[in-house]
Amino acid sequence: MHVCSQICLHKNLPKPHPHAKGKCRSYELKKEVDDVEIEINYLNQQIARLYEMKNLSETLEEENKNIEKRKESKERYK
């Protein structure tokens, strides 16, 4: 009897639309693409920050060299 009632329940369930599986897969792929784009944007931001830090570091090194040269020049002329 239990099996019979289960079969009847299954018959009453609406059947999925034939394209529903494809739409679901399409939605999953779109979500995956969106997630990957977010990750790419994050990584691009990190790369930009690293270049900024590198440029700042190089600028500071140049400034320090210039300061050292000025100090050395002042000490020579004393």
In short, what is this structure?
The chain is built from two helices and no strands. The radius of gyration is 33 Å and the shape is rod-shaped. By secondary structure, the protein is mainly α.
Question: Could you characterize the architecture of this molecule?
Answer:
- The chain is mainly alpha-helical.
- The protein has one domain (2-77).
- 88% of the residues lie in helices and 0% in strands.
- It has helices at 2-12, 20-77.
- It is rod-shaped.
- The termini are far apart.
- Residues 1-5 have low confidence and may be disordered.
State the helical fraction.
over 70%
Largest sheet: none
* Beta-strand content bin: under 5%
The domain tally reads 1
Low-confidence stretches: 1-5
Q: What structural category characterises the helix and strand content? A: mainly alpha
Count of helix runs? 2
Oligomer: single chain
SSE string:
HH
Strand elements, count: 0
Radius of gyration: 33 Å
Mean pLDDT: 82
- Choose one word for the global shape: rod-shaped
N-end to C-end Cα span:
110 Å
List keywords for this structure.
mainly alpha, rod-shaped, 0% strand, 2 helices, 78 residues, single chain
List the helices and strands and how they pair.
Blueprint: H1 2-12, H2 20-77
